[in-house]
Amino acid sequence: MLTISLVTLFVAAIALYISYTINDDVFQAAMRFSSLTFFLISLFCAPWSLKLALVAIPLAIASWNSFSTENF
After folding, report:
1. d(Cα 57, Cα 61) in Å, to the nearest integer?
2. Which of 16, 58, 22 is nearest to 34 (CA)?
3. Running DSSP on this structure, what letter comes out for residue 24?
4. In 3-state terms, what secondary structure has residue 7?
5. CA separation for the pair 10, 29 (Å, rounded)
6. CA Rg, the chain, in Å?
7. Quick one: residue 68, left, alpha or beta (phi over 0 = left, psi -120 to 50 = alpha)?
8. Is the whole model's pTM more than 0.70, yes or no?
9. How far is CA 41 from CA 2, 21, 34, 37, 46, in A?
């Protein structure tokens, strides 16, 4: 299951990268939707430690950014 999770996470990252580099709006939306779909599949297939990391890291970055902007 870890291999399936890492492959789907890799596909999601590639789709997200393609969505930022392409200029066509419809293709960009389709790539972002497929990226979200593969990310959710990777969360379904991942072991608990990887699930925790995939959810905790973006939350930690967001809280760190809000903490750093409150001081200025």
Report:
1. 6
2. 16
3. -
4. helix
5. 18
6. 15
7. alpha
8. no
9. 12, 24, 10, 6, 8
DSSP letter at 71 equals T
Q: State pLDDT tens for residues 15-44.
A: 989 988 999 899 999 999 999 999 888 888
Task: Report H helices in the chain.
Answer: 2-21, 25-45, 48-70
Residues constituting the chain: 72
- CA 23 to mean position of chain CA atoms: 20
Q: What is the largest CA-CA distance in the chain?
A: 44
- Within 10 angstroms of residue 46's Cβ, the number of other Cβ atoms is 20
Would you state the structure tokens that stand for residue 2, as one six-digit string? Answer: 């870890």
Q: Which two tokens stand for residue 16?
A: 């997200």
Say how many C-beta atoms besides its own lie within 10 A of residue 36's C-beta.
13
Q: What is the pLDDT of residues 9-22, one digit of tens each?
A: 899 999 989 988 99
Q: In angstroms, rounded to a whole number, what is the distance separating the alpha carbons of residues 45 and 54?
A: 12
